[in-house]
């Protein structure tokens, strides 16, 4: 689908606030974060990423560690799974528009994939949403990937493991076609603890992620032992990735808002991770 055929485009409600609103400044900022990051060395095929979703001034450097793993790659389709922070009486939401807009251009929605997913799980389309946690990942994808891609956007109100497992398996079924796909889970970690406390809590959560334990991600949050505001997005991506053959998760970066904002008394934690399918042919 070419850009010029798209007339129903979701405009960005966060450009100029959460990230630079001018295309040249945005490209330079994202490229800078990617340049500073170091790729994780894991033999195998990249299946998915976990990235934070705060404003770039706070979490951009950590997001760069996630998307650095996909820099230079090409995918036909990217599935971005995020929380939905606003209230909607629905478990899983998607866009009712044909494309997303950022200062770097438009990204067409994969309507065929959404229709196929909607045959497996209930999806509620919404229009004109203000959700930042999905959009914030898009400029990184636009700069990291070497060609345009279709977007399958999903925003979750249901934070249960049952919902994540159901959705993750359905996503995997839809992705088993002849198109190349990348999963992206959007999530920050603990909120408003001291920097010292946050690092302990967030290590517990990231250890669980690296153990490839989607159910544990939900359980830790439920029990108040560690936190992720996009816990269901992480769990969904892990379930889908496992169904697609992934077997390894590597944490690629970590930091808190205190690293950039200076306030160490009430911070937000940010983690980056890569989900791989190991190359079993290696000796």
Helix and strand composition category: alpha/beta
The CATH class name reads: Alpha Beta
Overall shape: it is globular
Residue share in β-strands: 15-25%
CA-to-CA gap between the ends? 42 Å
CATH homologous superfamily label: LigB-like
The CATH topology assignment is: Protocatechuate 4,5-dioxygenase, Chain B
Number of helical runs? 10
Residues in helices, as a percent range: 25-40%
In terms of per-residue confidence, which ranges show pLDDT below 50 for 5 or more consecutive residues? none
The CATH architecture can be named as 3-Layer(aba) Sandwich
The Cα radius of gyration reads 17 Å
Number of strands: 12
H-E string: EHEHEEEEHEHHEHEEHHHEHE
Summarize the structure.
The chain is an alpha/beta fold and 283 residues long.
Task: Tell me what the structure shows.
This protein has 283 residues and is of the alpha/beta class. The protein has a single domain (3-278), classed as 3-Layer(aba) Sandwich (Protocatechuate 4,5-dioxygenase, Chain B). It contains ten helices and twelve strands. The protein has helices at 23-36, 56-67, 111-118, 132-135, 138-144, 161-175, 195-210, 214-222, 231-243, 257-261, and strands spanning 9-10, 44-51, 77-83, 92-95, 99-102, 105-108, 124-126, 150-156, 181-186, 191-193, 248-256, 267-278. The strands form two sheets. Strands 2, 3, 4, 7, 8, 9, 10, 11 and 12 form a nine-stranded mixed β-sheet that branches. A three-stranded mixed β-sheet has the order 1-5-6. A hairpin with a 2-residue loop joins β5 and β6 (105-108). α1 (23-36) packs across α5, α6 (161-175) packs across α9 (231-243) and α8 packs antiparallel against α9 (231-243). The longest helix has 16 residues, at 195-210. It is globular, with a radius of gyration of 17 Å. The model has no long low-confidence stretch (mean pLDDT 95).
């Amino acid at each position: 689908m070419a850009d010029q055929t798209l007339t129903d485009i979701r405009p960005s409600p966060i450009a100029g606030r959460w990230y630079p609103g001018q295309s040249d400044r945005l490209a330079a900022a994202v490229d800078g974060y990617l340049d500073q990051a170091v790729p994780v060395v894991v033999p195998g095929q990249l299946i998915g990423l976990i990235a934070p979703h705060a404003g770039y001034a706070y979490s951009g450097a950590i997001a760069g560690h996630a998307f650095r793993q996909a820099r230079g790659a090409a995918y036909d389709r990217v599935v971005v799974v995020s929380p939905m922070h606003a209230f909607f009486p629905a478990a899983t939401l998607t866009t009712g528009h044909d494309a997303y807009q950022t200062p770097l251009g438009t990204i067409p929605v994969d309507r065929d994939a959404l229709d196929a997913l909607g045959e497996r799980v209930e999806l509620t389309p919404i229009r004109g949403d203000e959700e930042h946690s999905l959009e914030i990942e898009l400029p990184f994808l636009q700069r990291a990937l070497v060609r345009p891609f279709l977007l399958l956007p999903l925003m979750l109100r249901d934070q249960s493991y049952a919902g994540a497992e159901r959705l993750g398996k359905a996503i995997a079924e839809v992705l088993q076609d002849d198109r190349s796909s990348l999963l992206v889970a959007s999530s920050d970690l603990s909120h408003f603890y001291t920097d010292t406390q946050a690092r302990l809590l967030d290590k517990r959560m990231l250890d669980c992620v690296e153990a490839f334990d989607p159910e544990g991600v939900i359980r830790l949050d439920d029990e108040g032992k560690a936190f992720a505001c996009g816990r269901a997005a992480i769990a969904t991506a892990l379930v889908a990735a496992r169904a697609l053959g992934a077997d390894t998760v590597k944490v690629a970066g970590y930091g808190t808002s205190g690293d950039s904002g200076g306030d160490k008394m009430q911070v937000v934690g940010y983690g980056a991770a890569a989900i791989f399918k190991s190359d079993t042919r290696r000796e």
